[in-house]
């Protein structure tokens, strides 16, 4: 207060008593699942997909975490937490050709078991000499054509065509290793992958699926000497076909480490399916071998349910997280919703994926019936979605769970319209998907909707859209997603905005300030269309006075504030009645 010492006007600022409340964040997601790399003991916030890749690696076949994060940002998300869950028993498919060339899948996971490599030796320069070069082809799955072909490889480490030089770092599928060092050409062979899926061809060549996983057991490699020092290697995926076609072919490979066509040089880093290791310099003999016949089947490993439930706890100190998903894991939906409901502020919402196989009305209803506990802090969606394979290994679209797409659409809707708008409808089109595993009809959805299962539908005018907005709860009061999420928004915003009231004198002055501040906040939301009602009195109320806080509570240091709101509920069923208008005469 100014001290008057001279005649004149004194001006000072006086607090209005208004402490504006700000809207809590509702669009920060948390994704829990196995990543290719990165810390597993903490939740880390990332702001774009490039940052995620730097910290956690790329797409892997044993987890949908990366796919979900990619689609989250692709559909409007701006920030999310990552909780990397460790995988037990993850292996890379590999195969050994002869004794000196080992080929491995380029990354861990069961996908490598679908690789096959074929080696073909090139013809010798003269009948008196032995072949020194070979070709190597890589096949993936049922594709009869090779996905990669490496030609004129050799086993000479100093040669530019040294098999390891040509393949490692260039193949998308495999890596190779030559050990011990040898110039002996691998024999002509066709072998599929096993544990990473791997196989040894004779005593001079080991071949591995490019990554661990059961997929590598479906790889086969074929080696055919082409000269006394060269051979061809072909990789097949799903060699059970009547006339399999290699997915990769590497020609004129050699076992000389100095040769530019050295088998490791040509294949490792270039093949999408395998890696190789030359064990000697001897040329491998002609052969066809499944990698699953080798000593190392690829495996996707396992992540136990307790690993996920423990991972939820890493989010305990993340106050800004509001959406949680465990991409592709239906067995933790109940645990996820329970965690959201039992956080200190009950401030999160869980987005659940049903299993890929739960794509019929009956299987989906059965799956939802098994989810326990059920509450209004989560929703489930189906079916799974097709997206273009981001690794480029599959020419066909791959199936992925929808939670990453859904979380991104939630964030986009919150930003553009507000949390009170249901994240569904013709405006809720999903980006980055090329199809649905199942196209549900109106009749089929009519059987799923009463079970609170949200469908993703495809319409000619609007594309692939979210066509459901229900929580999994059976409580009619909390049936709709925007109602539950609006309640979360109010709870967190008011909690954060009235911290100043703690230890203030508990009397009418405090009560009036609380009413003033919360009323101002609710009025702002009302003007944005967040509540039902044609007037503020119909839309909300704030009560804090001697009636809500009697003397008994004052004596215990308690002040009670009662806030009510009229939630906006989505127009789920639009009923139109059409009648004829009777004709009128002039």
TrEMBL record:
InterPro entries: Phage_sheath_subtilisin (IPR035089), Tail_sheath_C (IPR020287), Tail_sheath_structural (IPR052042). Coiled coil: none annotated. Residues 473-579 form the Tail sheath protein C-terminal domain. Residues 301-471 form the Tail sheath protein subtilisin-like domain. Transmembrane segments: none annotated. It comes from the Bacteria. Belongs to the myoviridae tail sheath protein family. This is Putative phage tail sheath protein. It comes from Thioploca ingrica.
